[in-house]
Amino acid sequence: MSRPKIVILGAGYGGIMTAVRLQKQTNANEAEIILVNKHNYHYQTTWLHEPAAGTMHHDRTRIMINDVVDENKVNFVQDTVVEIKREEQKVILENGELDYDYLVIALGFEPETFGIKGLKENAFSIRNIDSVRKIREHIEYQFASYNNDKEKKKERLTLIVGGAGFTGIEFIGELADRVPKLCNEFDIDRSNVRIINVEAMPTLLPGFDPELVEYAKNILERKGVEFKLGTMIKECTEEGVILSKDDQVEEIKSNTVVWTGGVRGNSIVENSGFEAMRGRVKVNKDLRAPGYDNVFVVGDCALIINEENDRPYPPTAQIAIQEAYTCATNLLRLIRGNEELASFKPDIKGTVASLGEGEAIGTVGNKKLYGSTASAMKKIIDNRYLFLLGGPGLVLKKGKLKLF
Ligand code: FAD
Ligand code: NAD
């Protein structure tokens, strides 16, 4: 009898954890497991603000897939997914195609630009290794060019971050740490550099604990960040951004605009005909796509409603990892002929966000954390994930071992 074929698309948190769980739990020859990913490495999306600002080398955030996936159990295919043909149970890749008995869609997120003019063309985004390497090199080039210009151009040293959600805040914290080092390296007075955060809502980190938000704002302002709150980015041009606040329009010239104003699920999901809201499929409790009993969706491509407030859970790595556990359990049950599947219930342990070296804010359980304690907690969370993925060896190889 032929083995059921499980195809997992994407090796981010949701995809690689599903593969690793399955490789641990399946018996030899119980299933054929195929993992498809664009690159031959998994990267830690949750660390990308650091290489984007240049405070960490991007290689520290990536882990070769063959280092964590057992090639005797999982067949890794390096390729790019183009389309899912649902009715034919087939995945079209750039260099071929794959059929499946069971599919796991874990293709992650894309920046959401809400149709704002010029953002796609002119702004950078923090999405993957390629995109953050480009941001770091671009900023370094601006600093390196400044003293070579005949007329010293302020826009080279005006750095704009659009959006003060967690990504924007974590990135700006790193940027504020990096700028004094760049000034030193390229003989530039710090007072010539502006780091501006633009946020549409009246506060940074809308919805987060107000006391911790105030703490974050003070820390970042002390590091020289300017906040423009209650201010919308209306347009991004080749010259900079056009902002609006209370019907007042302002243009800021800048060569560097990084958009962190929101995310959506991978557009392949809706382009393949799945019913989705901003690329996210509202999955059943067992994580299957409605109407497709052999298709699971996990991570940022999945939408799950929090029944306590009737709002979607935010797309996070924390939830993607937990979904992977349930997804692997349910796949095992299906291939073993057990139709009674487990329901997914997120277990939100808290949220911790860094504000640069040695500084962070967070809530863990009902405890508020800030400063060096929160920063150490953030590193413990990062190390815990490495432990789940590759055991103590991976923590020693890639972990953040200096907690304070
Ligand atoms: P992703 O991590 O996006 O992985 C998707 C994978 O699919 C990637 O490997 C990609 O290469 C691959 N892929 C994409 N398209 C294709 C294709 N067409 N073909 C083949 N492969 C493809 N969440 C937290 O819980 N805690 C945090 O501290 C936190 N910090 C964050 C910091 C930053 C800077 C950012 C940007 C996000 C952060 N998040 C955090 C959110 C978290 O990173 C996402 O929710 C998480 O990455 C989603 O995981 P995923 O597996 O769905 O997708
Ligand atoms: P987000 O949607 O959480 O935040 C985007 C911010 O941009 C919002 O505050 C929004 O008001 C603002 N914005 C939108 N349009 C704007 C405009 N035109 N002008 C100015 N501001 C505008 O997006 P994110 O920060 O990328 O986070 C994505 C997901 O990743 C979230 O679920 C988040 O919780 C998660 N995340 C978690 C962490 C952490 O736990 N440490 C870190 C980063 C991201």
C-alpha end-to-end distance: 56 Å
Total strands: the figure is 27
Which CATH class of the largest domain?
Alpha Beta
Whole-number mean pLDDT: 97
Q: List the ions, cofactors and other small molecules found in this model.
A: flavin-adenine dinucleotide, nicotinamide-adenine-dinucleotide
Figure out the total of helices. Answer: 10
Strand order of the largest sheet: 5-2-1-9-21
CATH architect. name of the largest domain:
3-Layer(bba) Sandwich
Compute the gyration radius: what is it? 22 Å
Alpha-beta classification: alpha/beta
Architecture overview:
The protein folds into 2 domains: 5-111 and 263-347, FAD/NAD(P)-binding domain, CATH 3.50.50.100; 119-259, 3-Layer(bba) Sandwich (FAD/NAD(P)-binding domain). 32% of the residues lie in helices and 27% in strands. The relative contact order is 0.15. It is α/β, with parallel strands linked by helices. The structure holds flavin-adenine dinucleotide and nicotinamide-adenine-dinucleotide. Its cofactor is FAD. Residues 5-324 form the FAD/NAD(P)-binding domain.
